[in-house]
Each structure stands twice: as C-alpha cells, then as structure tokens.
Amino acid sequence: EQYGVSQVTSTSLRANVSQAMAYRERIDKAVARFTDSAMQNRMQDVANQVEAWVRNIYTLASRLDAYHNDNIIKSDLATVPDSIKKLKYRLNNEADAGIREELSGTIERRQAQYNSLLKLDTTMDRAELQLENTLTALGTVYSQMLLIDAREVDSSKTQRLRENILDQVHSLQDVLTSMDEVYGNASDPAQRSRANLSQ
Q1: What is the DSSP string of 35-51?
Q2: Other CB atoms within 10 Å distance of the CB of residue 187
Q3: Is 19 exposed, middle or buried (0-12, 13-18, 19+ CB in 10 A)?
Q4: Average pLDDT, stretch 60-77?
Q5: 113 touches 80 (CB < 8 A)
Q6: Contacts (Cβ under 8 Å, ≥6 apart) of 115
Q7: Could you please report the per-residue DSSP string of 98-125?
Q8: What does DSSP assign to residue 33?
Q9: pLDDT value at position 45?
Q10: Model confidence at 89, in pLDDT bands (50, 70, 90)?
Q11: What is the pLDDT of residues 4-23, one digit of tens each?
C-alpha cells in the first residue's frame, strides 16, 4: 500500500517489488530481536538504509513498467529506421536543392531520434539487470543480518553490512539518474516524441 505495488502492471516487476518489501519486513523483524536499546538503535540505522534501498527498487520497477507500456516508444523503434530509409531514397532522387536541404535536415533529426531510442533501450536493459542483481544482494544482506549477534553490533562485520547497503542504494540511484537523463521526465509519451523530432 505504501508504494502502490498494484499499479505496476508487469507481473515480473511487481513480483520483484513484492520480494524486496518482504525482505524489508523480515529485516525489521531481525532488528527487533535485539533487546538492548543501544544495539537496536544501531541496527535500526541499518534497517533505515534498507528502506531507502527498497524505495529505489520500487522507483526503478515503476519506471521500467512505464517504459514497457510506452506504445509510442515501441512504435518509434519499429518505424523510424524505415522512415530514415525512405527519406534517404527521396534525397538520392531529388533534384531540387532546396528540397534536398530540407530532406537532409529531416534525416539528421530522425537519425538523432533513433540514436536516442537505441540508447534508451540499452539503458532499460541494463536497469532490468541491475534490478535482478540488487534483489539478490538484498537477500544476501538479510541473511547476513541474521548472522549478526549482540556482540557483533559494533564489529567490522556490521560496518561492512552498512557499507554494502549504501553501495547498493547509490548504485540504484545512479541507474535512476541515467534513466532520467535518457528518458526525461515528461509524463506524456507524445510530448517526448515531439521533443525528439524538434531537436
């Protein structure tokens, strides 16, 4: 309910988010087993980092889901290459200099659009792999938390656990930033397509 998991339409992505949330709940329970308040506070810091991690997982899954459901992007990936071929054919057979100049400009814009689409598709493929990897890492963190006992809260083992979580949070944040740079923040797919054509 907190994340609106039901709004993720992809079955596999929704399952990934649900799995991440299940790990988070189990980690909260693992923290609760420490009876000493000071120890529990230290481990709660770890759990709070996991919360940021799960939040990034949900954001990543939501953006991947939106991409998979973006029919304009799908259509552009399929039709833009053919459009470029037709424009190049017209250019090769056009005698009028003014029209040739217009066609050349159109081809350049179309090619830039297609390059952006390919970069976006590659970015999304990498993001899906990152999502799978980070879920595996989250499961590993959960098992490591279960192995920490009260005597080890201040140990190097706990410190490594915190560092591992922070690395994962930052790694996901980097992926989300890359997605923003390539995909943009426009909520309307048609707006994105028009923006590409106007570049």
Answers
A1: -SHHHHHHHHHHHHHHH
A2: 8
A3: middle
A4: 92
A5: yes
A6: none
A7: HHHHHHHHHHHHHHHHHHHHHHHHHHHH
A8: T
A9: 82
A10: very high
A11: 788 889 999 999 999 999 99
